[in-house]
Amino acid sequence: PLRFECSCSRERSGRALISLGREDVERLIDEQGDVLINCEFCGQQYRFGLRDVPELFADATPRLH
Fold this sequence. Notes:
Order of helices and strands: HHEEH
Number of strands: 2
Helix content: 40-55%
Oligomer: single chain
Strand content: 5-15%
Distance between the termini: 48 Å
Largest sheet: 2 strands, antiparallel
Shape: elongated
Strand order of the largest sheet: 1-2
């Protein structure tokens, strides 16, 4: 039987935030309270707040500009 399975996850959503850079993520959180990422396919919502920032960027490689 045919079945739909979305490949979204909190980890993948977190990687999208990491690509923005820590400063931008912290600024978004300051402005909005939390950052919400919505999966367009399954509707799952992932919420990231200030307490999540250290964990998100703990293993992130610094970006070169």
